[in-house]
Amino acid sequence: MRQKIFMLLFFLFGIANHVNSRTVVNNFTVSSDFIQDLFINEIEKNLDLSDIVGSIGSDILNAQKCIVELKEIVNQFPSLKVARFLDSWGKLPSGILYGHFTDLGNYDQCVRTSVILKEGNQPTKGQYCFASFPILSLIQTTPKEDLKNVRDLSLNSALGDALKSLLSIKLGICIPDSCDAKLITSIFQKAAENVLGGALAGGAISNCSVAKKPDFEALDIFAIVFFSLIGVLLIASTAYDWYTEYFEIQPIELLLAFSVITNSRKVFMINTKKSPNSIDCLTGIRVLSMVWVLHCHNLMFCSSMDIINLVDFFSWIKLFWSMTTVMGTVSVDSFFFLSGLLIAWTCFREMDKTKGKLNVILMWVHRYIRLTPPLAVVILFYLTINKYIGDGPYREDSITRHFQCKETWWSTLLYVQNYVSSKNMCVLQSWYLAIDTQLYFLAPIVLIPIWRWGKKCIPVMVVLVLIAIGCVFAEMYAGDYKTLFGFGEAGRTANVYYPTHIRFPPWLVGIGLGYIMHLYRNRSIHLPVMYQILGWVLSLGTLLAIVFAPHFSLKSSYTVSVFHAAIYEGLKRVSWSIALAWIVFACHFGFGSKVNSILSHPYWQPLGRLTYCMYLVHVGVLTINFGISRTDVYISDYSLMLWFWSNFGISVLVAIVLSLSFESPVLVIEKAIFGTKKPKDEFRKTVLPITTPDLRA
To answer: Residue 169: beta bridge partners?
Structure first.
C-alpha cells in the first residue's frame, strides 16, 4: 500500500516538471492523461454493469445505455467522430507544486459534440462534468519542502475548511449525456481501487451540464411578457415626458412614473443645499461600505474559481494588508448602524410633531412597498431569465439558484429567509435585508420608550447588547468555532452570522446615536481639542484593530481557542458601530474637518441613491461573470483590481437599469398614493430621498 501511495505522490508532484514523463504503477502507465487512461482501462477490462448499478442504485436502462455508449467511444477511438469526447478531457495540470490543481478541458467542444455511434441509434451528445480527487491527505504526508506554504496554511486552524476545500485535483471530463454522475463516480472509484488500491478514494463527479437549454415554462413566458411590458412603459412614459417638456405642457405626475428622463434627473442630480434634517456624512459611509462589500464578494468569487497559482494566493492571504479584503464582512455592520441611526433620526423628529405617536402600520406599509418590488424583480430574474444567460463550466450555480428560488422565494418576500431558509437562500445576500426589515418592524417597541423616558432606557439597551454577546458565546462554544474570520466552519454562518438576535447590537448603537443627535440637533456642542483628538484616536484605532487583529492568527504556530474567537466575534460588531458613531457625531457637529468634507461631498449622492439596487444585483453580476469563465484564474493584486472594477462597473450599470425601471417608478407611485403632493411646477425638480422616508401620510 505504501508503494502505491508513493507512486501516486510521485505522479502528482513529479509530473509538474515532467508532463510527458511516464511511470508504471501495477503495469499501468502514468502520464498527463493518467485519469483518462485509468477511466478507459476500467471500461475496457473491468466494467461490470451489475456490480456498479447495484452499488449506486442507478436506473438500469439509463446505466446500461451509458455503459454501451462508453464502450463504443473507447472501441472506436481514435476515430475522429468520437475523438471529440476524449479530446475535451482535462489533463493533469502542470505546476502542481505551485498550487495548480485544475484543468478544465474544453467545455464548448464537449457540449457541442453530437455523434451517431451505431447506425439507427439516436445521436449521443456530450456532457461536461467536473471530476474531483481530494489530495489534502497526500500533501500533509509528503516531506517535500516545496509544498511548505500550501501544507502549513492548509493545516492552519485559522482558515479551517475554507481553504482545505481548494486542495483537490479537478479535471473537466466529457461523457455521454445518458450517463449519471453517480455511475461515473462509481466507475472512477473502482478504477482507482483496481490500480492504486483506493489511493484516489473520495473522488466525485459534479456540475454536469449539457448544451440543451431548459424548456420554457409558464413562469418564463410570464417573465418575458412582464419585462417587455415594463420596457413599453419606459418608452411610453419617456416619450410623454419629452412631449410635455418640449411643448411646455403641464404633465400628469403619475404618467411620468416610468420616465427615464425624469427619473435619471432624480438619481443623478447633485444637491449642494444643506438641510438641518439630513446627516450629510452618511452618504459617503454608505457608498464606501457598499464598495467594500462588493470588493469582498469579488475576492470570494475569485477564490471559489480554480486558481493557477494557489501557493501565491495562500501567501497573499497571509499578508498584513490582505486583511482589508478578508475582513470586509464588518462592512455589513456599518449598514446596520446606519439603519438604526436613520430610523431614530426620522422617527424622533416625527414623534416630536405628534407628541410621541407613530403611525406604525403606515411605517410598515411604506417599508414593504419601497423595498419589495426591486427584490421581487431580482427573484423573478433568478427563477426565469438567469438560467438562459451564458453557459460554461461554472454555470451550474444558475440552475442551483433556480431551484433554490423555487423553494424559498416566499421566505425572501416575507423577509424571514435568515431563519427559514438560511442554507438555500434565493438571493444570497438578502439575509441582511431580512435582518434589517425585522428590526425595522420591531423599531417602534424601542423608539417609543426612548422618546418617552430617554436616558432611563440606557440600562435596558446595554442589557440587550450583552444578551446578544452572550448568544454569540453560546453559539461559538456549541459549534466549537475557532476561527477569527467567520468562514470555513460548517454551520457557523447560519448560527452566528445570519440570526437577527445576534446581529442587532450595531443597529441599537445607531438608535442610541440617533437619540443623542436628536437631542442636540439645534444646539452647538463645544469639545476641548484633547477630547476631539482622543475620540478620533480611539475610533480609528478600534476600526484598525478589528480589521487587522486576526492577522496574527495566520501564523502556523498559533492556535485560536474557542474563547478567543468568541471574544473577538462577540465584541467586534458593537465596537465597530461605536467607533463609527464617533465619526458620524464628530462630522455632524463640526469636529470632522477633512474627514467630514470627504464623507459629505455631494458627489457621493448619485451612487448613494443606487446602493440598494447595487446591493441587490451585484452577486448576480459576479455569478454570471465568473460562471461563464472557461479558464483557470491567476490571482494577483492587479488581477483582483481588474476584476473588481469590471464587476463594479457592470453592477452600477445594472443597478441603474433596475432603479430606473422599478425602484424610482415605485417611489413615484407610492408618493402619489400615500405622500403629500408637491406643487406641479416643482415636480421635475424633486430629488430622491437618501435617508429613511418621511413617515407622514
So the answer is: 133
